[in-house]
Specification:
- By secondary structure, the chain is mainly α.
- The chain has a two-stranded antiparallel sheet.
- It has two domains: 30 residues; 66 residues, no CATH class.
- It is 43% helix and 3% strand.
- The structure holds zinc ion (ZN).
- The site of zinc ion has 8 residues, from loops.
Length: 127
């Protein structure tokens, strides 16, 4: 390598110029101050950017909208379990109440799915 101070040639592994004593390795081995860009903050709401109308529509079917919205848990249970439980409740209570309760629950879920699709909190606990 060549000395940056006096221009004389030095061995490649020399730490200092043999002629003027200029420090040679400093510039060559100085760690590059590359700033690693910090990752964007993780979105608290996985539903962001999803279609609220589609979420509401899917939630009419046993809360399938929560699957679409990307939630892993609904009311503290895994989303898929919630969907299955809702399906069972729909069938059992639906038969007993001629579908009235089922309809009400479906509408409640649809409204909640719509709210969450809009980026709001809604009223059903989801993660
Ligand atoms: Zn030198």
């Amino acid at each position: 390598m060549y000395c940056t101070n006096c221009g004389s040639q030095n061995p490649d592994d020399a730490a200092y110029c043999f002629k003027c004593g200029n420090k040679l390795m400093a510039s060559a081995t100085a760690p590059s101050q590359v700033q690693t860009p910090s990752p964007p903050p993780a979105s608290q709401n996985p539903a962001q950017g999803k279609s609220a109308v589609l979420a509401a529509f899917l939630n009419l079917f046993f809360g399938l909208g929560y699957v679409y919205l990307g939630y892993s848990k609904v009311l503290g249970v895994p989303t898929i379990v919630f969907v299955v439980l809702t399906l069972v409740v729909y069938i059992l209570i639906g038969v007993a109440t001629l579908g009235i309760v089922t309809l009400i629950v479906a509408i409640l879920l649809a409204v909640d799915g719509y709210e969450k699709g809009k980026g709001k909190k809604g009223y059903i606990s989801t993660q």
